[in-house]
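Recall that a protein's primary structure is simply its ordered list of amino acids. Everything else, from secondary elements to tertiary packing, is in principle encoded there. The following example makes that idea concrete.
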Amino acid sequence: MSRSIVALLLFCLPLLAGAADPRSRFRDIWQAEWAWRLQQMPQLATSVGVHAHDDRLGEVGPGAQQYRLEYWRAVLAQLDGLNQDKLDGSNRINYLIYRAQIESFIGNIALGSSEMPLNSDSAFYTDLAFLPRQHRFADANDVRRYIARLRAIPAYFDQHIELLEAGLSSGRTLPRVVLEGREEPIAKVAGLKDPEVSSYYDPMRRLPQTIAPKLVAQLQQEARSAILEAVIPAHAKLLRFMRDRYIPGARTTLAASSLPDGAAWYRRQILDYVTEDLTPAQIHRIGLVEVERIQGEMEKIIAELKFKGDFAAFLEFLRSDPQFYARSPDELLAQAAWVAKRADGALPKFFGRLPRLPYGVQAVPDAIAPYYTGGRYVPPAQGSNEPGWYWVNTHDLPSRPLYTLPALTLHEAVPGHHLQGALASEQGEQPPFRRYSYISAYGEGWALYAEELGVEMGIYRTPYERFGQLTYAMWRACRLVVDTGIHSQNWTRQQARDYMLAHTALSAHEINTEVDRYISWPGQALSYMIGMIRIRDLRREAETALGPDFDLRAFHDSVLELGSVPLPILSEHVRGWIELQKGRVE
């Protein structure tokens, strides 16, 4: 029996005896698929607190991708058979979000996304760096499962090499120009001589005290052997492939439209990340309007400072004056922590509900820092005893200006990603496919809105910090222009860099990193500004409709209470909240 038929039977048979009621049938559909999804994606299972698959990394090769495609097509057929009119309230929202997830899975595999399992921001080999943080180490069996995962890395890499080879054959690769240096994280592991230097060994230094010392020593030796015999050789093999085969064979074009079915693939990315059916041309125009608006605000601050020189001269002053840069990694981290605590103190005035989960401030790990973004929020694995982490990149301090640090902190920590994500994780009544999903237009749109909210919160203390907030907003507006320019209008890499240099106060290093991110990760960068515009417009709509009865804390709670949702669903929900508030005061 073929694997595709097995996939169909695995999914459909449990449903044949299911209830005829659409709500019950829908529950049966997503529960069966979610259990299968966790089995297929063991690292996802670990991150959401399901540990039945902690000894595996999962199959990801071309055969596995075809299997998943046919399974999800069977799921979509089941969804098509539901009477949607019988679904209301939360069931309707769940259905719309779930269906969009399944359609995205199908669309991306069908259009060849699995043949490009890396970009300039992340990759299958760098993602494994999160294993030591996410894995559970409660007892000796947990440790053995972790070691089994280390032993599984060679097969996992081999299957990814198969995908990359398929991409070379089909023409679906990253542009060669953004691959320079991307093999360095692989080389660092491949060159290790001492397994205890590896980050994969770090958990073995702090095993639970309930494990007998003799067994601890045995497990530590098994981990050292797994790193020497499996992890390091797997990275060495991958490094040879990347240097000898993949990078030399990668495409020389930049645009997503140059890929096979490239225009359709780019539209798929836009729909996934923006959640609205906007064309590249529409997004480009929105970006140009926002750039002009924000530039006007920036010019006002320059005039306020009585700076002698034009806009370009002011940007050069910000990029080069030592007063705007930390002298040590600890100074940068201390400043980030100070901003974070001031933001914490302002939250009760702006939010009715606050999360229980705390967060900390850490440096981006050295292994990935040279090619990593300026900051990132890292949520804890579900069920772990870890906090959330606000990562700050302390690599290359002259590219990390202090005047943008408040905006970065508001975005990544509070009231941005940590606040939103922690509240979402506490909504236990939501099905897991919602609770553990991340919709970029909502999450990044909210985080960018949080940067702007910082003005009202009193976080920006100087004109330079206010300019920093505006340059971050300008950065996201420029993304709309640059991303669509590259992928639908054939902009060059230098054209994109020049546009960013002319309009933002980002350092040259940050701009180079960001432009390569847009080249290698089409569509994702569009989500920030589009999402923020929708949230900002909904607030204005609520303020106009409710007048003096508008409650900002209640509005924010309304925006956050559904968790991560597509923008059309958020708009419908907030408008329903507005009508409810109007009914209460009339």
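Residues 213-249 form the longest helix (37 residues). Strands lie at 359-363, 375-378, 388-392.
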